[in-house]
Amino acid sequence: MNDQTTRQTGFLMNVLVVGGGGREHALAWKIKQSPRAQKVFVAPGNAGTARDATNVDIAADDIPGLVAFAKENAIDLTIVGPEIPLVAGLVDALEAEGLRAFGPSKAAAELEGSKVFCKNLLRTADIPTANYQTFRTADEAGRYIKDRYTEPNDPVPVVIKADGLAAGKGVIVCETRTDALEAIDRIANQREFGEAGAELIIEEKLIGQEASVLAITDGETIITLPAAQDHKPAFDGDTGPNTGGMGAYCPTPIVDEEMMAKIEADVLVPVVHAMKRSRRPFKGVLYAGLMLTAAGPKVLEFNARFGDPECQPLLMRLKTDLLEVLDAAADGKLRELDGLEWDERPSICVVMASEGYPGSYEKGHAISGLDAADQVEGVKVFHAGTSMSEGKVVNSGGRVLGVTAMGSSISDAKLQAYKGVKQIRWQGAWCRKDISDKARLVETK
């Protein structure tokens, strides 16, 4: 039944969600609500997905294991959450066995897997982005900085990025020449981000507010989702090191209808056409990380999957059957959909993290108050870095939970989310206290 040629619209489906983070918990939770969802598996999952679906003890990057499971369990659609298996070619491996999958091919996922590839594509397609240079060695990059900035404390408004995947952490914003040279050393010499630092980019620092605009595409049709705003820096006031994301909210008032139309016309449509021209047709979630500058929106990066934590507040608001949408995208039939229906209420996700994140942290601390948090009006707790130990939910990752809430306004959604946060305890737990405050400032102007 899972061969594309024998698929019939409306049949019950066995679904496999690949990954074990908050994004995958949100995907499994939303897909489980579909009347067409028969069995929903998550590999490897976490303590939260074990409640809302069925966990499978297969790592997200174990491509042979995932393909074998999909064949043996008559999986009708595999939804790939994280970037690592996408870049490694999981979708290609599934489709080679006649199995249906939602997500880009290995070639298309290079849009996220290589920042150098992404920037070169943006330049070729004339899509607005920061000016940049690429380098293969620390010496080359260092000379570039030293030739342009002679004094150690001279202002050096640049951003230095590792080329490859670095779990959202391979981007260093610099203020001085000393900062820039240290960043180059960390990426290219110390290999703080592993092989992701084999190449690096130095680009101009853009000024403005960031926004995340995600779209679902089958390579021909694009369905744009409401704009969200992520909070990458670790601490309040956007200070501290970059993380995988400390919280997000949706929609963001800084992207109005006019701005969204410009983003679609100048960014999303051109990149889909450019990928098709380069014989890497993109199917899946196209995530544009944008800086809204005085000169208009410019691309910071592209991701090839749902953002985490943007996925959580987005799916809280989605009324349309998600499985129907992803099923149509996998078959190239998005044009047959009437569009998506959204709850008008905003939603906020607050990430609770382990002490020490994004650096080293301890695991195995028992978490209490999860049921109490879920009982707060409008709240759903999505698990990310959790597992079960001796019958208890414990922290097993840096970003542990995404406490997500809806409310009548952004202020109300924030209030409900932090009510949920206050119910939850474990040793060393912490979170940012200002998620969505930038939106509230826009609202009051």
What this model shows, in words?
Helix 1 (22-32) packs parallel to helix 11 (311-317) and helix 6 crosses helix 7. The chain has helices at residues 22-32, 49-52, 63-72, 83-88, 90-96, 106-113, 115-124, 138-148, 177-189, 257-277, 311-317, 322-330, 370-374, 410-423, 437-444; strands at residues 13-19, 37-44, 54-55, 77-80, 101-102, 132-135, 155-162, 171-176, 200-204, 209-217, 222-224, 229-230, 233-235, 239-242, 247-250, 284-293, 296-303, 347-353, 379-383, 386-389, 392-395, 399-406. The strands form six sheets. A five-stranded parallel beta sheet has the order 3-2-1-4-5, with helices on both faces. A five-stranded antiparallel beta sheet has the order 12-15-18-22-19. A four-stranded antiparallel beta sheet has the order 6-9-7-8, sandwiched between helices. A hairpin with a 2-residue loop joins strand 16 (284-293) and strand 17 (296-303). With 445 residues, it is of the alpha+beta class. It has three domains: 4-105, 3-Layer(aba) Sandwich (Rossmann fold), CATH 3.40.50; 137-198, 2-Layer Sandwich (Dna Ligase, domain 1); 209-444, ATP-grasp fold, B domain (D-amino Acid Aminotransferase, Chain A, domain 1, 2-Layer Sandwich). The longest helix has 21 residues, at 257-277. The N and C termini lie far apart (55 Å).
SSE inventory with pairings:
Blueprint (H helix, E strand, L loop, with lengths): L12 E7 L2 H11 L4 E8 L4 H4 L1 E2 L7 H10 L4 E4 L2 H6 L1 H7 L4 E2 L3 H8 L1 H10 L7 E4 L2 H11 L6 E8 L8 E6 H13 L10 E5 L4 E9 L4 E3 L4 E2 L2 E3 L3 E4 L4 E4 L6 H21 L6 E10 L2 E8 L7 H7 L4 H9 L16 E7 L16 H5 L4 E5 L2 E4 L2 E4 L3 E8 L3 H14 L13 H8 L1
Helix pairs in contact: 1-11, 6-7, 8-9
